[in-house]
Design brief:
With 322 residues, this protein is of the alpha+beta class. It folds into two domains: 174 residues, 2-Layer Sandwich (Ribosomal Protein S5, domain 2), CATH 3.30.230; 130 residues, GHMP kinase, C-terminal domain (Alpha-Beta Plaits, 2-Layer Sandwich), CATH 3.30.70.890. It contains eleven helices and eleven strands. Helix 1 packs across helix 2, helix 2 packs across helix 4 and helix 3 runs antiparallel to helix 4. The longest helix is centred in the middle third of the chain and has 20 residues.
């Protein structure tokens, strides 16, 4: 049964958390919203400051992903009216493409009565994104440990302590994921692989048990951050010194260029840490903005309307970050 209209909210995400390359992800309380309904002719309404270059025809990612859901469910909904608003900056390492994929999957599935399970949506999202960390975080919320073997996507969800906050520094330049991946070697030394297996294992255990005192060491990485650092001036200094300015741990967010620091909500040094991030990037001539975020625990949500007369923008008004 097709619903008349659906609206979904999708959290941003950060991936890797240092050593958990393509396997660890965390949802963040920075959001995108999608509205989807059946229409006589496909049309798009895009809002917000992060929509430059997004197609407004049937090549649009949201439209194409929605059609995958309809095909999988054996229904036909060839024409859609799609609206989207996003606070998630594009190509900054905060899961913008993953949020679009997850939002499209969830909205299309809700539109036709949710015939597909969350696990099926997770598998579809991972097939599209080629790794499960960002899409899993946006879909399920919290922190996820996951794997993708080319056929099966699996995850376990970790709920962080309420005291955990995430301070992100977002440089004022884009870094395409493809470019960041091309910086990685085809092979790595065995010692680096062993290094990451150990650090990632301890990081997951620390997040599960609340032993945040060991995060500063557990978040170190040898597989991807050393190779990506030349693409982001100031990154090496931030990775080396942020814990000396109050961070619990620090990492490149996904493929970058955003850098993230995990912090204790009760810390008196958050302002010091924020200034360190801005000053370090500024010394390299890089302007940046900072946001203090929290892990999103809900994942993608299908919104209910209190009043069917509300517009899409009226629905999300008040939830958008200033």
């Amino acid at each position: 049964m097709t619903m008349e209209k659906v609206r979904v909210r999708i959290p941003a995400s950060t991936a890797n958390l240092g050593p958990g390359f393509d396997s660890l992800g965390m949802a963040l309380n920075l959001y995108a919203w999608i509205e989807m309904e059946e229409a006589e002719t496909t049309r798009f309404h895009l809002y917000g400051d992060h929509m430059d270059g997004v197609p407004t025809d049937k090549t649009n990612l949201i439209y194409q992903v929605a059609q995958l859901v309809f095909n999988r469910a054996g229904v036909s909904v060839p024409e859609l009216a799609i609206s989207m608003y996003s606070d998630i900056p594009l190509t900054r390492g905060l899961g913008s493409s993953a949020s679009a994929i997850v939002g499209a999957l969830a909205a299309a599935n809700a539109l036709i009565g949710e015939p597909l399970s969350r696990q099926e949506l997770f598998t579809m999202a991972t097939e599209l994104e080629k790794h499960p960390d960002n899409v899993g975080a946006s879909l399920f919320g919290g922190i996820i440990a996951s794997y993708w073997d080319g056929t099966r996507a699996e995850h376990l969800r970790i709920e962080p302590l309420p005291s955990l906050e995430v301070l992100v520094a977002i440089p004022a330049f884009q870094l395409a994921t493809e470019k960041a991946r091309h910086a990685l070697p085809d092979e790595v030394p065995m010692k680096d692989a062993v290094f990451n297996v150990g650090h990632s294992s301890v990081l997951v255990a620390a997040l599960c048990t609340g032993r945040y005192d060991v995060i500063r060491h557990a978040m170190q990485d040898a597989l991807h951050q050393p190779y990506r650092a030349p693409l982001i001036p100031g990154m090496q200094a931030i990775l080396a010194q942020a814990v000396d300015h109050g961070a619990l741990g620090v990492a490149l967010s996904g493929a970058g260029p955003t850098l993230l620091a995990l912090v204790d909500a009760g810390s008196s040094r958050k302002r010091e840490l924020e200034q360190f991030l801005l000053d370090t990037l500024g010394a390299e001539g890089i302007a940046a903005t900072t946001l203090c975020l929290k892990p999103d625990l809900a994942g993608v949500c299908v919104l209910t309307e209190d009043d069917g007369k509300r517009t899409f923008i009226e629905t999300i008004k008040g939830e958008v970050r200033a």
